[in-house]
Amino acid sequence: MSLKDDLEAEVAETFETKWTTRDGQVVPSPADVKLGNDAVKLKGTVLYADLSESTAMVKSKKDWFAAEVYKTFLHCSAKIIKHFGGTITAYDGDRIMAVYLGKSKNTSAVKTALKIHSARQHIIQPALKKQYPNSTFELKHTCGVDTSNLFVARTGVRGDNDLVWVGRSANWAAKLSDLPNTHATWISAAVYDVMHESVKLDGNKDNMWEKRSWTPQNGATIYRSDHWWKL
């Protein structure tokens, strides 16, 4: 069978085969989902933590310096994600994706974002400045958080495959993390409306979040904050 014939057969089979789905209680691994039209359904909150302006950094800085920035940011983000019960589902270049489940999934994801902001400001940046006192480089990032139903399928080929996360929260969290890094955390109204008061109000009981209208998403209500939580 030629490559063209093989591709045509696989594509036709995917479109013709009925899906088998089941409700999930935990974040699946690729081994938990079949390569065919098999999927797990979840109610999940997705967080993306994205290192800002990495393209410019790679162009203007030494490769080893950029690698150190990548490694420290992703390491701190991953540790904080796991501490708050998130499951890391992907490392995508300069960003990390995580999924949270359960009753407190929105609060946990937002706590993660606020702690990542703290780690960037109070751990990574000071350590960078200590090691390279003449450097003017300032690390910046953005976290995006949304919640929705998710449809988790397995994609790729045998021996080389991974999960694909289909649902608004996976898409919106990634897009929210692309918004201006003047505010380190951007969340959807669906997250804001149900998260605990402890991540809405600061120590003076003032709201930490600013309401905005997201024009590219038909004016959807979103919230932004530049607050951080002490580690």
UniProtKB/TrEMBL annotation:
Domain of life: Bacteria
UniProt-listed SUPFAM superfamilies: Nucleotide cyclase
Protein name per UniProt: Adenylate/guanylate cyclase domain-containing protein
Source species: Parasphingorhabdus flavimaris
Higher taxonomy: Bacteria, Pseudomonadati, Pseudomonadota, Alphaproteobacteria, Sphingomonadales
